[in-house]
Write a structure and sequence with these properties.
With 437 residues, the protein is α/β, with parallel strands linked by helices. The chain has two domains: 138 residues, Aspartate Aminotransferase, domain 1; 276 residues, Type I PLP-dependent aspartate aminotransferase-like (Major domain) (Aspartate Aminotransferase, domain 2, 3-Layer(aba) Sandwich). The chain has 17 helices and 15 strands. Strands 4-10-9-8-7-5-6 form a seven-stranded mixed sheet, sandwiched between helices. A four-stranded mixed sheet has the order 1-2-3-13. Strands 11-12-15-14 form a four-stranded antiparallel sheet, covered by helices on one side. Strand 7, helix 10 and strand 8 form a beta-alpha-beta unit. The chain is globular and about 70 Å long. The two termini are 40 Å apart.
């Protein structure tokens, strides 16, 4: 039901506001894998909201846990006070993280988790007497949120342009190589040599000036860019050799998206820090976290004098009690329904087969996947940008997707079933023939 008189007052994020308000797409409710708009139409949510509603919409268990917590303790300052649910949630979370990442710093979003991780990296280098390590290395097409640290290490030009000067950062080349890796099933075969560029950048800047390297194991907002086989291990080896921290931004790849709790476990590469958000609460409540290697925490904390603040950073809503309740209920669902591993089983195989069945359809130049994430890349014969038009046609046909240039990105809820995958594939196939056939 419409309870407002005008759309003028809401400045919408990452939206063409004038175009949207001329032809709005309003979602009124959601349940399972479905969205329902104000026209009563049923739309398949093929992106789990914004890469976050991993367990599907309308989970009453989460809502009930939040309501109960709000009645018991709605808020308490995280500065110099604690609450049981914050400690409980942190202890529960590290049961899923790599072996040596047992410290949790809470934030409110992926952007803030990244900002926190970058500051932790600098605090660690300072605490061990290496203040000269102040630079960061990110990667082209990387997305690390929209705070100043995140856009500095990020590699999406529109997000950076107009907001400088930024942090001292250099960037690795991205690993998207459609010419050599088109229609790869799982990780692409070609491109391992791109990891060697890290060695070159370190030597160019001097390794003693680099605090940390930050990458998404799979770039999401950059167009679902997969790491070549062995690429992440190579980055780990180079960082270790040169005493540089490695941060994995797993805001998207965490919590079952690739068929394991984190991409770190999927690819058997342990970073020094992992940033997390989105699926950590099933997208129901804002919460982010940085999972930190024990030695980093110990170094920072032990370097400060007794009874002093060791790390001057944090947020009013760090470990918010209601968000922690949402997170604990989300973990219960993941565990009891086996959702964190589901993408590595039969449904993941069916997803892969479905996306790759689009090979040969007009206008489609690539399909790629890993776990329950995927992308279909289009190319118009005249070279025009067609991604936004395809996204709109998908919506009109009852399918919600994300367009990144001419790439249509997917990250469906982990509860997706085969008929839903069939609908996604059939919709893309029909649109390809309609527009390019």
């Amino acid at each position: 039901m419409k309870n407002y008189q005008s759309m003028d007052h809401f400045w919408m994020p990452f939206t063409a506001n004038r175009a949207f308000k001329a032809a709005p797409r309003i979602i009124e409710r959601a349940e399972g894998v479905w969205l329902y708009n104000d026209k009563g139409e049923k739309i398949l949510d093929a992106t789990a909201g914004l890469w976050c509603v991993n367990a599907g919409h309308g989970r009453t268990r989460i809502a009930e846990a939040m309501a109960a917590q709000a009645v018991k303790l709605d808020y308490s300052s995280p500065f110099n006070l604690g609450h049981d649910i914050g400690f409980e949630f942190a202890e529960r979370l590290v049961k899923y993280t790599p072996e040596n990442l047992n410290r949790v710093f809470f934030a409110n979003s992926g952007s803030e988790a990244v900002e926190s991780a970058l500051k932790i990296a600098l605090a660690y280098q300072n605490a061990r007497g290496k203040k000269g390590k102040y630079r960061f290395i990110g990667r082209e097409k990387g997305y690390h949120g929209v705070n100043f640290g995140g856009i500095s290490v990020g590699g999406l030009t529109p997000n950076r342009k107009g907001f400088g000067p930024l942090l001292p950062v250099d960037h690795l080349p991205h690993t998207l190589d459609v010419e050599r890796n088109a229609f790869s099933q799982g990780l692409p075969e070609h491109g391992l040599e791109k990891a060697d560029q890290l060695e070159n950048l370190l030597q160019f800047h001097d390794p003693d000036s680099i605090a940390a390297v930050i990458v998404e194991p799979v770039s999401g907002a950059g167009g679902v860019v997969l790491p070549p086989i062995g690429y992440l291990k190579k980055l780990r080896e180079i960082c270790t050799r040169h005493d540089v921290l490695l941060i994995f931004d797993e805001v998207i790849t965490g919590w079952g998206r690739l068929g394991a709790p984190f991409a770190s476990q999927k690819f058997d590469v342990e970073p020094d820090m992992i940033t997390s958000a989105k699926g950590i609460t099933n997208g129901v409540a804002p919460l982010g976290a940085v999972f930190v290697r024990d030695e980093i925490y110990d170094t920072v904390v032990n370097a400060a004098p007794e009874n002093t603040i060791e790390f001057f950073h944090g947020y009013t809503y760090s470990a918010h009690p209601v968000s922690c309740a949402a997170g604990l209920a989300t973990l219960d669902i993941y565990e009891q329904e086996g959702l964190l591993e589901r993408a590595s089983g039969e449904i993941g195989e069916y997803w892969q087969a479905g996306l790759h069945s689009l090979k040969g359809e007009p206008g489609i130049v690539d399909a790629r996947n890993c776990g329950l994430i995927g992308a279909v890349q289009f190319a118009a014969p005249d070279g025009s940008l067609v991604g936004p038009k395809i996204m709109q046609r998908c919506y009109e046909k009852g399918l919600s997707v994300r367009a990144v240039g001419d790439i249509i990105a997917f990250s469906p809820p982990l509860i997706i079933e085969k008929p839903h995958i069939d609908q996604i594939v059939e919709t893309l196939s029909g649109i390809a023939r309609e527009m390019f056939g």
